[in-house]
Design a protein that fits this description.
This protein is an alpha/beta fold. Helices cover 50% and strands 18% of the residues. Bound molecules: 2'-deoxycytidine-5'-monophosphate (DC).
Length: 225
């Protein structure tokens, strides 16, 4: 049986960096499920399919080949075999992924892919997203829900964008993050919330290493090689 670690949380809660590090240090597979919704939003944009057209989006989701390749920086995202890792990180696609992921029919078409990616790993997998512990792997071995204040999350996101050499305005980053949170939390299909059996970690004031060590110590309590 594959050991599944579910890490959920809102935008900028630090999920990605922490999930990548935990997976690498334990030799587990890393699955960034947000990249799947981002790839769909990009594919829709390129195919001129509206982000509001749920039926067309569901059909598009069915026809796409979304895959991942391990890379030194975590993972490359391939859309129909083309590397779109950079293209899916723009602010436009961030908002688009949150829009396309609202629809139940879109989510159901992408569920099997997420489960397969988790289950095909040899020893264990760390999956990060919004509904991993509630929908994708409701029986995950460990569920973590990360949170942080709006301001700290916006600060992290701002740094992430500017460190990539892209321009950003803090107030706009904060507003974009709140807009996305609201959509992710209020949608009817698999909204963002902590599973009842999730371990809650408030990352405000913690450095990344502290969060990684906390998660690893929770895993070590239950993981038997
Ligand atoms: O984690 P992220 O910021 O890359 O995710 C982009 C969007 O995808 C997010 O705003 C909501 C959606 N998403 C989701 O609905 N369910 C997931 N498991 C992962 C992401």
């Amino acid at each position: 049986m594959v050991f599944i670690v579910a890490i959920d949380g809102p935008v900028g809660s630090g999920k990605s960096s922490v999930a990548k590090a935990v997976a690498k240090e334990l030799g587990f597979a890393y699955v960034d499920t947000g990249a799947i919704y981002r790839a769909l939003a990009l594919a829709a944009l390129e195919a001129k399919v509206s982000w509001q057209d749920h039926e067309a989006l569901a059909n598009l989701a069915e026809s796409l080949e979304i895959s991942f390749l391990p890379s030194p920086c975590g993972q490359k995202t391939l859309l129909n075999k083309i590397d779109v890792s950079q293209k899916i990180r723009t602010e436009e696609i961030s908002q688009g992924s949150s829009v396309v992921s609202q629809y139940a029919e879109v989510r159901s078409r992408l569920l099997a892919l997420q489960r397969r990616l988790g289950e095909e790993s040899k020893s264990g997998a760390v999956l990060e997203g919004r509904d991993i512990g509630t929908v994708v792997f409701p029986h995950a071995d460990i569920k973590i829900f990360l949170s942080a204040s709006d301001e700290e999350r916006a600060e992290r996101r701002f740094l992430e964008i500017t460190q990539r050499g892209e321009p950003a305005v803090y107030a706009a980053v904060l507003a974009g993050l709140k807009e996305r949170d609201e959509r992710d939390e209020k949608r009817e299909a698999a909204p963002l919330f902590a599973a009842a059996d999730a371990i809650l970690i408030d990352t405000d004031g913690l450095v990344q290493r502290q969060v990684i060590e906390q998660i690893k110590s929770h895993i070590k309590k239950v993981y038997q090689k």
